[in-house]
Amino acid sequence: MKIAFYGSSLLSSYWNGAATYYRGLLRDLAARGYEITFYEPDAFDRQKHRDIDPPEWAKVVVWDATPDGLRRVLAEAKQADIVVKASGVGVFDAELLQGVIDHSREGALRLFWDVDAAATLEEMRGDAGHPVRRALSALDMVLTYGGGPPVVAAYQGFGAARCVPIYNALDPSTHHPVEPDPRFASDLAFLGNRLPDREARVEEFFLKAAASLPDRAFLIGGNGWETKTMPSNVRHLGHVYTREHNAFNATPRAVLNVARDSMADIGFSPATRVFEAAGAGACLITDAWEGIEMFLKPGEEVLVARDGADVADHLRGLTPEVARRIGKAALERVRAEHSYARRGAQVDAILRKAARPERNAA
Predict the structure, then answer these.
(1) What share of the chain is helix, strand, coil (3-state, %, to 5)?
(2) Topology of 182-337 in CATH?
(3) Nearest to 146 by CA among 306, 28, 14, 262
(4) Which of 15, 26, 290, 353 has the most CB atoms at less than 10 Å from its CB?
(5) Which residues, including other chains, have CB under 8 Å from residue 77's CB and lie 6 or more apart?
């Protein structure tokens, strides 16, 4: 079956945290026989900061972020059996969503894939005319980056025919243990872009912990932090390319995950970095959110912190031996239970069941 996927970017993780999620899932689906075309706009300097070249398992169409460019790529939707509009493309989001509904052929599956469901649902609650809310009746299903039962119930309450969380996972061919790299040497490292709905939590869980441990070394990677006032023991790297993630995760004593406000509130939303860090054998410290035990066992495979004081306490008691033991346990867990091969099998089963023979013949 042919998939037309309209998303932010497959080629670049620059201001695009969903990149490795797309890559892991779509690569697996391609191996299962799907013919994938990924449509991404030339926007936000992402093409200047590519992590990968166009892969052999998907055709990538980079379109001009103009009305003419939009019309050209939407015209190709009719060639696909499955048409997907992902959230957070960043340009023409409303037009793309309506466009895939209008331009896909009769009988094609029409999906909205929400990689920030908690935030989307919050917008929908305050706006009866929200583009996603208006489009739900014309979509066959909604897939989400996470969110668990609360997100499923909310989407179905808004009229979605079906909503299924497809959680982040590990691609062991791209994220795996490597030798330490002195560039990333630190006691605690955090990787994430500076976003309004994350910044206060980074201040609490990362910067507060750094301030309370002036004799420890802290490392922060991601865009936007260069203008942020930080304790003197925090070093800022700027954008960290995907090819550097393994060393970034494998080198520090521990790696921190900090959820965005909406994802922390709703729970069941592990970020890609949770699995990528575990896949590199890192000792992960995460902020507390409901559902973490579905993915990693607190105290054995991950350390959970309620605030910055907890983070600091974890670091004070974290010996290299304990850190290695937790990292090893997390690596074994995600390889066994949280791979993109498992997620891809889940999506494949969903799509094949939904693409009924009578539908394809329409």
Answers:
(1) 45, 15, 40
(2) Rossmann fold (3.40.50)
(3) 262
(4) 26
(5) 4, 83, 99, 100, 103, 104, 105, 108
Q: Rounded distance, CA 337 to CA 319, Å?
A: 27
165's torsion region: left (phi>0), alpha (psi -120 to 50) or beta? beta
Instruction: Provide the residue ranges of all domains of the chain, joining segments of one domain with +.
Output: 2-169+340-360, 182-337
Give the pTM: 0.89
Q: Measured between alpha carbons, how far is 252 from 361 in angstroms, rounded to an integer?
A: 55
CATH number of this structure's domain 2-169+340-360, picked from the four choices 3.40.50.2300, 3.40.50.2000, 3.90.1300.10, 1.10.150.120: 3.40.50.2000
- Spatial separation of the C-alpha atoms in residues 228 and 202, rounded to whole Å: 11
Q: Residue 202 and residue 183: Cα distance in Å, rounded?
A: 22
Q: Tens digit of pLDDT for each residue in 206-240?
A: 999 999 999 999 999 999 999 999 999 999 999 99
pLDDT exceeds 90 at position 287: yes
User: Which residue in 127, 46, 41 sits closest to 91, CA to CA?
Assistant: 41
Task: Determine whether 358 is exposed, middle or buried from the number of CB atoms within 10 Å of its CB (0-12, 13-18, 19+).
Answer: exposed
3-state secondary structure of 347: helix
pLDDT tens digits for 50-95? 999 999 999 999 999 999 999 999 999 999 999 999 999 999 999 9
- Which amino acid does the sequence have at 317? G
Tokens coding 175: 């994220």
